Amino acid sequence: MTTTALVVDDEVDLCRLMQITLTKMGIKSDVAYTLSQAKSYWQENDYDFCLTDLKLPDGSGLELVKHISGSSTTPIAVITAHGSMDLAIEALKLGAFDFVNKPLELPRLRQLVESALKVIHQDNAAKLTPERSPEQQMLDSRLIGDSAVMHPLKNTILKLARSQAPVFLSGASGTGKEVVARLIHDLSPRRDGSFVPVNCGAIPSELMESEFFGHKKGSFTGAVADKQGLFQQADGGTLFLDEVADLPLAMQVKLLRAIQEKTVRAIGDTKEVPVDIRILSATHKDLNQLVQVGSFRQDLYYRINVIELKLPTLNARRDDIPVLAKHFLALIADEWQLESPPLLTDNACARLQHHDFAGNVRELRNVLERAVTLAETSTIDASHLGLPDFDSHQEVITSASQNISTNKASISNASVSNKSESSVADSIQDNSIKSKIETDSTQQAKTNIHPYRTTIQHYPSMNTSSTSTRSAENTEKLANKSMASSLDASTINQVDEQDSVSKAVNIEDVATGQLPAQGLEHYLQEQEKRLIITALKQTNWNKTQAAELLGTTFRSLRYRMTKLEIAEDQSES
Ligand SMILES: Nc1ncnc2c1ncn2[C@@H]1O[C@H](COP(=O)(O)OP(=O)(O)OP(=O)(O)O)[C@@H](O)[C@H]1O
């Protein structure tokens, strides 16, 4: 079947050029010279896509964008006068999938049409599969959750995947921003290109320019060979700027320029190279606030935040906890080569559903990994979860805050909060809801029982009572009494046991009041590693005995050794 397009522009020559290009690509097209003509053609025919100028004699092409994207899924792209970026952004927000600047460059036009064709083919294939489309299946298998807040989110992801618009993913740490970014890429016409994730906070500022744009051999000391930058690696694909709030101001300027001009120049090079990338970005920080205080450039914010997608916290979608838990247990079983995925008892499931997941989905996974190491059998009970004792007072507060968080999430999620829609969301957030939300955070702060809020660590705190029972049992087994206090260091990441850890590990360097330069988590991991190696040495690297000496299970020890990269051949060290 021949693909058909509607071309809308009042410049006759330009229309002819576009028609020739489309014909060469096997697309049959009609031309409309005015907005009203375009509307009536659209009404009478069934086009596969539309390409419209924004400035028409009888109105704005934006009206056509609104009309078409409001009533169909047909891809529409816009042609903008060079430099009118604001209008292009407005069109993307209204649902245009891409834009091309005047004067028209034919390679860029062809690129845009090819993206449209991919979307059209995808749609046609979906029509032929009455069940769930392959895209829907990919989405459901990778973004786990079927709760009320997840439905609009998933629909939005499918829509955003078709567009070339920059998307800014906001949401607390561990809510799945990177999962969503990868999905947007893998579901998009760019899926054959690379997905290049970059943690903007992890690159030393002096290396940033070279990392992003590349360098030529000899351009600075240490540049021993030509190096391709991240922009070029993502050419034809997607560049994911994670932790974008951490970009230094100087780099923000350079990045903005590269994004706007769609070209990059490597350090030491004289020529600009065109790049075709889609930008996705994310941070758990409040970027808007950083703009207010001047640490993030407003123009860059505006450019990357064309469409904002807010991810709900796990507390706002507790209904998803059982299905997420099942998903992670299957993954863990697979990774650890267990015979079958461990099962959660009803008690354990209920306990998880009442936990305050400040670390969101990532924390749930960590809790389960830990539970699998602690459980002796393949059944995980509430006691293996290592969560604080549950008290009904907390239940009341948590479920109250859950309702409020759900409100928050649905307000922010109901619409993909692009600028115009977020102002609607703002107006929905009337004062009473705002004050409830404030109460919610205050109450959550009061019931802040979770170490994610107070320390940097991977694992939740242990139930103190079960820990002490375990310690008592293990004390009997101890060959070396002096190791008794070290036993609890196997649960070194646990806040409740900070005291025993302090006793167990060599803390002379911090006893003076000096904090470890490398940060708490790294410090604790170092100590954990030392204790495990000590126990392994004392038992001649017999893991079963070492586990016993440390008061932990064999599986737990094996897991920790992998995590801390303790190899068997360290026996000589
Ligand atoms: N809906 C989900 N379905 C399956 N796994 C998920 C989901 N959400 C998050 N995860 C998992 O949770 C962990 C954290 O997710 P991710 O890294 O995407 O979060 P994030 O919001 O980018 O966190 P951060 O802000 O700290 O970078 C990963 O292991 C990811 O696979």
TrEMBL record:
Q: What CDD domains does UniProt report for this protein, alphabetically? A: AAA (cd00009)
Which SUPFAM superfamilies does its entry note? CheY-like (SSF52172), Homeodomain-like (SSF46689), P-loop containing nucleoside triphosphate hydrolases (SSF52540)
One Pfam family cited in the UniProt record for this chain: HTH_8
Show the PROSITE patterns listed in the entry.
Answer: RESPONSE_REGULATORY, SIGMA54_INTERACT_2, SIGMA54_INTERACT_4
Describe the location of the Sigma-54 factor interaction domain by residue ranges. 143-373
Q: Which GO terms describe its biological process?
A: phosphorelay signal transduction system; regulation of DNA-templated transcription
Q: Which UniProt keywords apply?
A: ATP-binding, Nucleotide-binding, Phosphoprotein, Transcription, Transcription regulation
Q: Which residues, renumbered to this chain, carry the PTM 4-aspartylphosphate?
A: 53
The segment(s) forming the Response regulatory domain are 4-117
Domain of life here?
Bacteria
Q: Which GO terms describe its molecular function?
A: ATP binding; sequence-specific DNA binding
Report what the protein is called.
Two-component system response regulator PilR (NtrC family)
User: What organism does the record attribute this protein to?
Assistant: Psychrobacter luti
